[in-house]
Design goal:
Number of strands: 4
Strand order of the largest sheet: 1-2-4-3
Number of helices: 2
Strand content: 15-25%
Distance between the termini: 37 Å
Low-confidence stretches: none
Structural class: alpha+beta
Helix content: 25-40%
Largest sheet: 4 strands, antiparallel
Order of helices and strands: HEEHEE
Mean pLDDT: 94
């Protein structure tokens, strides 16, 4: 009987550990998106003000994990020039999207309230963001995606 108890305890402990690891691994996957964005050289007269990443059910309906990473940049360049710069590095339509950031809120994300700490009221701030992928099976068993 003791052997069965140890096996059952091992299985339960493994499941609990897996449930704890899923969000951690998925958060790391989201942070890698920021690293990819930051690997692109910044345009002239531009600096990073802040960065943000999140994993979970972020937009749309249904189940499934989504991975998001963004940097907030301050630049004197117009949106068109910034978009042209980042478009050189796009591999998919979901990479390096540039939009004017005129509020503190990260409005791209529909589910939840996320915001930047930086005051963006001067009108020279832009969000550069990408959507990415996680690692299976961790993305499949993270409760934040359901």
């Amino acid at each position: 009987m003791r052997k069965r108890s140890k096996i059952a305890l091992t299985i339960i402990a493994s499941l609990i550990l897996f449930c704890i690891l899923c969000p951690i691994v998925n958060d790391i996957s989201a942070k890698r998106i920021i690293a990819n964005i930051e690997s692109v050289p910044l345009p002239q007269d531009t600096q990073v003000a802040e960065q943000f990443s999140h994993a979970g059910k972020l937009v749309g309906n249904g189940n499934g994990m989504q991975f998001f990473g963004a940097i907030l940049i301050e630049s004197e360049l117009p949106l068109e020039d910034l978009d042209k710069h980042y478009s050189l590095y796009r591999e998919t339509p979901w990479d390096y999207i540039v939009e004017l950031q005129d509020t503190q809120n990260v409005d791209v994300i529909e589910h939840g309230t996320f915001s930047f700490e930086t005051d963006v009221s001067n009108g020279n701030f832009y969000i550069v963001y990408s959507w990415g992928n996680g690692i299976s099976p961790f993305q499949d068993f993270d409760l934040r995606g359901h």
